[in-house]
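Example 3.2
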Amino acid sequence: MKLLAFGLLAAGGCLLPSLSHAQATPSRAEQEVAQLVRDFQAAEQAYDPAALARLTDARYVEVSPRGEVDERARFLGFYQPAQRQPWPPFTVSDEQIRVFGTTALDVLTFTYSLPGPDGTTRRQAMRATFMAQRDAQGWHLLGAQYTGIAPVASTTAPAH
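Structure, written as tokens:
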């Protein structure tokens, strides 16, 4: 019995490094979903409704940071070239993609550098969740939800 347990542990120990490597390397589907979200962001910044229409499903729905729900037609109407405004610089971090067959979830953080008073800048973070689905034509976004991340309050101890 001890020999069998040792053998199972040894065999499991040999598999663990390969399993952890497989999780660290994004799958093809994860890479495709990440690219879909990057293409979507680029189309938003370019105010390109034709590209946004290609990247989204007809059932697309978006929840803004204010909690407003925008169906696809309203969403596409917002990104007309005549309404184009400059976007503040931002970075993407903390991305986590989960693929469930032909459906995927991409959760990430956008951190914006916004102009503040007196020429200073302040950072504002937002969590975004994208849902995508793959069909015969490839991956398309079904929806997005944006949630503002409140700044961490300073925990400076009072002076005595």
